[in-house]
Records
---
Amino acid sequence: MITAKARAVDGPDKSFRAAEIKRRELDVHDVLIEIKYSGICHSDIHTAQGEWGPVQYPLVPGHEIAGIVTAVGAGVTKHKVGDRVGVGCMVDSCGECENCRKGEEQYCLKGNIPTYAGVDKYGEYTQGGYSTHIVVTEDFVVSIPDNIELDAAAPLLCAGITTYSPLNHWGAGPGKKVAVVGMGGLGHMAVKIAHAMGAEVTVLSQTLKKKEDGLQFGAVDYFATSEPETFEKLAGTFDLIINTVSAKIDISAYLSLLTLDGTLVNVGAPAEPLEVNAFSLIGHRRSFAGSMIGGIRETQEMLDFCGKHQIVPQIEVISADQIDEAYKRVLASDVKYRFVIDISTM
């Protein structure tokens, strides 16, 4: 077994503490990664606080992982020692079902194996990237382009793919009007990626305090959703809306902003149910959809796209001792726009 330093939490109301966790010895197709950076996702907070259901503690979160390959199993062909690599929200799947065969492992019919808070094929509880090392089967490790620094690459493994996938699937591009709801870790990536795809991007945020950033990231306009006239002015405007907010919002009000055959895609995952008025859908043949990360093939595609277009998240690098403070600041929307843990401080 491989011993890794980590930061773990022991309950919903507990602080993070230093810990040691065991990683399995390398199987024939496994890759050992020395983690350099791990992003902090809102999903980490939901899970650590038990908001999405029962959690087995102690828990080591983190599914935005960037690091260096330090060892490989005897049968590994996709990666070699010294490679710059990443691991996202899942570390395995059945590989045999219809969805896995299509390269949509995130929708594995038997359930993908999450990077943390899951149980792998060895029967072990998975622990995430707030740690110095991780062992992952080679098929779930992606390559990071040379022109993207590892600290900036980490959030791409969740925030990047979570927004790229629906933009790609629903055809964001030239001639399409795209709105992004929320300007946080996911939202600012959605703006950058949609702009690079050629879409006309508008940000819908509670206030205008991040307007300058939104326009700099590629939005052509920015509106405050706290102002009622926003929904009147923009009614029937957008072909696609990406909702990145991890809190309950008035979905029906946002559906009114779609044009004929427009789609609102939810990528935020609030703990509370979202209500939809049927008349907000049927009046203009609108769709309300959801999207969850992306498959491994699409994740690599996203990384290559970001490398080509020089798209990186805006980050704030912190030490391991600052995780609790970072969680509080995320909940207070006090981060521009993604915290990334420097694992050398572990």
Note: Residues 296-309 form the longest helix (14 residues).
---
Amino acid sequence: MGYRVAIVGATGNVGREMLAILEELNFPVEKMHAIASRKSKGMEVAWGDKTIYCEDIERFDFSTVDIVLMSAGGDVSRAWSEKIGKLGPIVIDNSSAFRQDKDVPLIVPEVNPDAVKQAKKKNIIANPNCSTAQLVVALKPLHDAAKIKRAVVSTYQSVSGAGKEGMDELWNQTKAIYGLGDATPKKFPKQIAFNVIPYIGSFRDDGYTDEEAKMWEETHKMLDPNIKLTVTCVRVPVFVGHSESVTVEFDRPIEPDEAREILREAPGVLVVDKMEHDGYITPVDAAGEHAVFVSRIRKDPTVENGLSFWVVSDNLRKGAALNAVQIAQLLDETGTITPKSGVRTVIV
């Protein structure tokens, strides 16, 4: 016995990862529902060794489930999450729709698990931006040891962050260029194959993009509003895995070896940092893994008390699906929710 779970957007990249990770982590599920728009009704998705069929969101009775994992985009979330929350289940929303709502906790379990106490205000919990999630997992233990005054972050974000259409565009453009075919951009504003694009989201009046603003706004909400943070977000021709170049200024001296030891003890972090040809992690190495990897920890001699390092994680996992499932685990472990059946059995 366990929880009755619905995944809205079950046919997408993140929705399918949610299904896989719920099984991998042995989350106690009594009944699984795959929910999609009417046009996807009847589509099949894999759940364990079974196949389940997508149900129409317009006709589904959400009062029958305990947890709703929402991964169908901001418009769908804005239309449905509050209505679903009022029916009883807790919605874990992967979009940006509620991240800055003061009545909705924004949670990375390794960073601010106590925020789960606010979950019942609207029965909605927000999942952070994929790039923010891995950043704060790396920053949190360092910030606890030596307060971070300022951080400069440049991201190298994979095309899967733009969904299946983004992955298809990289694949199709790569084939077209090799075959002298049509490489005209459709999903991205410029060619992504064999290129990088220093623009994700949409421009704001200050010259930053909303993707960049999400990172500092979410870091301030989850970690510390006093951290000064500037960000440049870049799309790169990588299928899965976001990377970040991070430079941090602390309020006291912190040596690279001390930072390595702090991070090695931190939940969710793996340090791979040797000065040799394979002594660092790339997106290919991180794909399919749960951890946030930190490499290339070194002093930044241009500022007082500065360190620079490299952060990599699978954006479909820790950046989205894994973090959502870990939030569900947190809800269960803290007793914030209990199954409607009243019985919870973990299979180990």
Note: The longest helix spans residues 317-333.
---
Amino acid sequence: MSDMGIRNSGMASNPASPTSDRVAAGASGTRPRRIGASWIAAAVLLVAACWAPFELAPFHTFQLSLAMVYAVALLGLNLLVGHTGQISLGHGAFFAVGAYTAAVMMDRWDTPYPLTLPVAAVVAFVLGIGLGIPALRLRGLYLALVTLAIAIFLVPLLKRFESVTGGSMGLTLDKPRPPAWSGLAEDQWLYFLALAVTVVSYLLVAGLLRSRVGRALHAVRDNEIAAEVTGVRPAFYKTLAFAWGAMFAGAAGCVYIWVIGYVSPDSFTLTLSITLLAGLVVGGLGGQWGPLLGGLFVMYVPSFAQDVNQAAPGVIFGLLIIAVMYLAPNGLAGLVGRAAHWLGFRVRKGRTHAH
């Protein structure tokens, strides 16, 4: 599909149409200001993230590292669910593929840990294509059931090949050690590795979504038939979305191994896939901040539920999800956006009264 075909699909010819108004607003500077505010917020958040490991206790630094790992995995799931409109209950399986790829390379072949990241991402990408092509004929609940089956049979499969995966006992690995020149403790070094992968992943996804490919993904999500009429190939882009989602999950699984230093099949049960999907929905589908907020949710809320009630943490976890969905139907990102809009309105109103 041509670039103009995607941009112009659905655009009314009436110059006074809402679409024209949005274009005019962008030309007058509204969109650049919004993008500028977003970049400022990202820069402030990055500075705070760089400062955090020097002020936090090692365990809290470890928790934030894991939250960023989950955020990278949710970036991939957001591409598939939030931006392409597909449903996946097997994202944890690709997370496990990346983790075991890195673990086997480090344990069996003594591969330097930086080299495991691209390999884990590529292996998950290829597997995503292999599983995405057969799933093209499926959608909705049928696709969800297929991806659910992937997550279910993965754990016994990993346990079966004990000579490679370590079976039920898993594999224990040496964590990446900080170089002498860095002057960092181990937890701080691992934190910055996770932060670097998170930042690069966010930049890659942002560039992808602003490209012609991103517009094609959104066209498939909004109306698959209309997208095909205008020249978009839904099968091609849905397969790519599946593969890209798997790739980011595989990269996240690799960094997970760096941070944890241990891998076992029981770490990647069906619960992980469901928790990741719940975290994305709670964080905010289709938004740029949704995966990050979802990663924080996946990391901290189960621990909070365990502290509240050790006998039934799942009940507390479920009730918290229901409460968040009731208070913020568009996710935490939508809630934060509305709060920021309200605060900006109050500030502008105060300036108006002052003058």
Note: Strands lie at 171-172, 262-263.
